[in-house]
């Protein structure tokens, strides 16, 4: 509280002058340099690495989505195969092994397969196909790019339909969908690897190694498809056909996860010249 104390002084005219002196109660003293609280550590969302924002555009990391969903589908298929053998639904040895189509026809496995492949095909796969279409746009003739794109789109529709049409009840349609998926996506992968490899000098030098891997990967697909076709002709659904089919399905499921390192991806949603690296 503000108080006044009287003090006396003598001015040059010999008059006594009284002047109040202001003092402050100690409780009123204000600390001019208060200690600032320590800055709190900001919480960072676990999803922060999956996207970036620039100029009002939210760019989602297609690479991370592709890897996660590819791994999820691969693990799910392996788990289905394991439990179908463990529960004695099928004979599982080197002489007799179930085809992928036979496993996913089991109750609940069919629903799981349809849900996961639908999310994968229309949430991630078609975006990868469009991203590579944009990447090759103007580098290869439009007709070649369009043909490759159309093959990729057909494969996106075909894979979930393999699970929708049970091989036991809808055998013919199931077979057509399987041929459409394996054939169209196989040709797409080979074309993509060839086009990228033939025009490697037109891309960022940092992508050269990834493009080489994609080219090698397309050769692996040719070998696997040829082996699957020959095995099916001579052995039908007997071993080694099921084992080769499992290898093809798992490789197909992870193709874009491998190919993701040959594309910046964000350039598919930003204008040219504003490429954003993940």
TrEMBL record:
Sequence intervals crossing the membrane: 66-84, 104-127, 148-165, 171-196, 217-237, 243-262
Query: What top-level branch of life does the organism fall under?
Result: Eukaryota
Protein keywords: Membrane, Transmembrane, Transmembrane helix
**Where is the CWH43-like N-terminal domain positioned along the sequence?**
77-260
Q: Which InterPro entries match?
A: CWH43_N
Keyword Membrane assigned to the entry: answer is yes
Please give the name of this protein.
Answer: CWH43-like N-terminal domain-containing protein
Q: Which organism is it from?
A: Stylonychia lemnae (Ciliate)
State the encoding gene. Contig4648.g4964
